[in-house]
Amino acid sequence: MREVVVIGAGVAGIQAALDLANHGVTVHLVEKEPTIGGHMAQLDKTFPTNDCSMCILSPKMVEIQRHPFIRIHTLSEVKAVTGKPGHFTVTILAHPRYIDMETCTGCGDCVQICPVEVYNRFDAGVGVRKAIYKPHPQVVPDRVVKDAEHCIECGLCYDACGPQAILHEDAGREMTVSAAAIIVATGYEVFDAKKKPVFGYLKNPDVITSMELERMINASGPTGGQLRRLSNGKEPKSIVFIQCVGSRDMPQNRPYCSCVCCMQAMKNAMLIREKHPEIEVTIFYMDVRAYGKGYEEYYERAKSVGVKFLRGMPPEVQADGKGMRFVVENTETGEVQALRPELVVLSVGIEPSPATAGLAENLGIPLENTGFIRSAHDALDTTGTVRPGIYIAGTAVAPKDIPDSVASGESAAMRAFVDTKKTAVRARSV
Rounded to an integer, what distance in angstroms lies between the CA atom of residue 96 and that of residue 131? Predict the structure, then answer.
């Protein structure tokens, strides 16, 4: 048996699937969203090179779609796993898409005519989407999906669809596949900033999250890359980043560092300063954690373009008739400063995907107290689990940046590849 199931199609799952498929292993890539790509598809640039995120990810997504040994299962989840290492039986539930995948061309005529607009999770709520939609222009597979919950059945999309690919009714479908190994790469969710009410998120429109800023400054995002205050649509004159929102936070049971927040704030601060040198940008932090290759140099580069760093955490963000205001102590100098920024960006941390707990229970593998999947050994084996034949990769294990997620995906793929070879040898010897 030379088949492996990869659960999760973010950058770690994509890399694992490609490595296995390039070694002749058939891969079933299971993704709960309508498209593969994960959170990396939402980003504008990547640090420390400031390369276009989709310029790196999109070719991998296309390669996944074209690879003869990869089977993509989007809008799907793993419902059950039985068997033993080398001989797992995996039940996959495909949720209804209300689209005929064979006849749909992805032209988007139905999207343009749809009158319904709802919250767009891919744009982190900064933009809206239709009731029939593509999450973003470079989706794989290049097909639309109909949101039955918000569709008003006006009938316009049926008339606009030349191939008649939109279905009035659809139902979920189950299938079972056999696998020699399973890789869990379920990814992460960002911390819900509403859990820190002192910062006024959702109460003040000019307090946004780091992911909302990513979508705002992305040229393909809802604002076309224009940085705007949500309160009045004007460009802000001053921006403050508040770090560690939902990270290194014992009351929230998040004692860990989320790894990417410092660098993400630096990246976005630099992009803003380089495009709008008149905007004053300040990053409030507990500790700057620039641990990767080239990261310390990136930190120095941020300071060189005028990004200010202040060691101190504001206790709250207040609002009055003149706008936002907060007082913070610079813990390096002891100086107390009062600021009135026009835009506040909360650098929200990483937490496990909501589906991780149920999947881990299904697979019979334990979780850490923080909700991430427990690896076989914290230092010696961060890819294996207590159950042989099941491996973990990316941020299902712990917060990671993109290079580390890719590396862990490669590691898990090679472990799974060894399992497929062992199973094939045993099959030939019987």
Answer: 14
Q: Do 207 and 324 form a contact (C-beta atoms < 8 A)?
A: yes
How many beta carbons lie within 10 A of that of residue 403, not counting itself?
A: 14
Query: pLDDT tens-digit profile of 364-402?
Result: 999 999 999 999 887 788 999 999 999 999 999 999 999
- The candidate with the shortest Cα–Cα distance to 13, out of 400, 393, 418, is 393
Q: Rounded CA gap, 374 and 67, in Å?
A: 32
As beta bridge partners, residue 343 has 239
- What residue type is assigned to position 405 of the chain? S
- The architecture of the domain spanning 97-166 is 2-Layer Sandwich (3.30)
Question: Using CA of residue 204, residue 205, residue 206, residue 211, what is the dihedral sign?
Answer: positive
| Residue 414, CA atoms < 13 Å, CB-side half-sphere | 6
pLDDT (tens digit per residue) in 130-141: 999 999 999 999
Q: Which ranges of 143-222 would DSSP assign to H, the alpha helix?
A: 156-160, 210-217
Instruction: In whole angstroms, give the CA distance from residue 99 to residue 101.
Output: 6
Whether CATH 3.50.50.60 fits 3-95+172-187+353-429? yes
Which CATH number applies to 191-350: 1.10.357.20, 3.20.20.100, 3.30.260.10, 3.50.50.60? 3.50.50.60
Bridge partners for 188 per DSSP: 352
> Which class for 297: exposed (0-12), middle (13-18), buried (19 or more C-beta within 10 A)?
exposed
- Where exactly does CATH 3.50.50.60 map onto the chain? 3-95+172-187+353-429, 191-350
Which residues make beta-bridge pairs with 134?
A: none
DSSP-H helix ranges across 92-227: 109-113, 156-160, 210-217
Indicate the pTM of the whole model.
Answer: 0.94
pLDDT per residue as tens digits for the range 205-241: 999 999 999 999 999 899 999 999 999 999 999 999 9
177 pairs with which residues across the strands?
Answer: 90
SS3 of residue 105 by DSSP: coil
Name the 3-class secondary structure at 357: helix
Residue spans of alpha helices (H) in 342-393: 356-363
Distance, in Å, from the CA atom of 337 to the CA atom of 234, rounded to the nearest integer, reads 26
